Amino acid sequence: QVSTQSTGPIDISPAKFDELEKHLGGQFKSETSINLSNPESQMGQLIHSLTEAANISLVSSDLSNGELKFAAQAFTLDKTLLVVVNVSPSTGQGSCSVLCENTLFSSTLLSTLKKAISKD
């Protein structure tokens, strides 16, 4: 489990997020599938749950398309990490991805996020 002291929210623009996401690419991406039973009502709660569980900040949200983007600073690594949640508004199926140069840290954070998502 990732301690909330090991990450901290950071304020970055959506453009900077996209730049970092492109830089990290698939090489540093850990991903898991998720399923929301009622995506329309759960997406808003998901923002709160994920920011609380992992001490990350919301960068942008497009609830109509089911996309949430978060960022944080991994203090122990001195690296920025990104979180992307994509959920189909109609089916509730989607994915949660963590992008970070440390894949072990990404996997651990992804596990924490998946637990938070499954509670909703």
What is the subunit arrangement here?
single chain
Instruction: Report the C-alpha radius of gyration, rounded.
Output: 13 Å
Number of strands: 6
First CA to last CA: what distance?
A: 18 Å
| Topology pattern, helix = H, strand = E | EHEHEEEEH
Search tags:
120 residues; alpha+beta; 6-stranded antiparallel β-sheet; 3 helices; 6 strands; globular
List the helices and strands and how they pair.
Blueprint: E1 7-9, H1 14-24, E2 29-35, H2 39-54, E3 57-62, E4 67-74, E5 79-87, E6 93-99, H3 103-119
Antiparallel strand pairs: 1-4, 2-6, 3-4, 4-5, 5-6
Could you please describe the fold and organization of this structure?
With 120 residues, the chain is of the alpha+beta class. Helices cover 37% and strands 33% of the residues. The protein has three helices and six strands, in the order βαβαββββα. Strands 1, 2, 3, 4, 5 and 6 form a six-stranded antiparallel β-sheet that branches. Helix 2 crosses helix 3.
Give a short synopsis of this structure.
With 120 residues, the protein is an alpha+beta fold.
